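User: I'm writing a tutorial on reading structure tokens. Could you give me a worked example: one chain, its sequence, then its tokens, then a sentence or two explaining what the tokens reveal?
Assistant: Sure. Here is the example chain.
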Amino acid sequence: MTDETILLEQLKSENQKEQAFKVLLNLYKERLYWHIRNIVKSHDDADDVLQNTFIKVYKNIAGFKGDSKLYSWMYRIATNESLSFLSKKAKQLQITNEELQNTTINNLASDVYFEGDHIKLKLQQAIASLPEKQQLVFNMKYFEDIKYKDMAEILETSEGALKASYHIAVKKIESYLTQD
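And here are its predicted structure tokens:
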């Protein structure tokens, strides 16, 4: 039995669920936070989405069938929660998702939690100019170093499509960064 299998059994056991969930939180909260933060950009928003992600994981762990790795399943929840959060926020502000993305990037320079210089800000602007799927793939590969096989599980698509998306994203980012 793997550690993940044991943890999963504990999560599904009523008398061990609380303790196992604390272990799960400690194992994945930082990785999931940065995954979410790469999507929503803002620290405060990332904290909110992370909390919603873990609430969903907690409520739905009993229904997890094990068709994918536990962390892939949690990353998929985190990704969906992040994208839903951005859509809701754009609707509330009555702007498009692209306009929200641009506003968020423009606000990054004044975000006290953003530890970047001009070059990192320019990279974030370049990433924001990509279509949503390319942004996800680029962030997951470049910042999180997630393997294409795992990314295919998380995003429910083929490795080939992900490799193509990443390659196109890199070309667009290079082009963006070298203009001016």
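What the tokens reveal: The chain has a mean pLDDT of 90. The first helix runs from residue 3 to 12.
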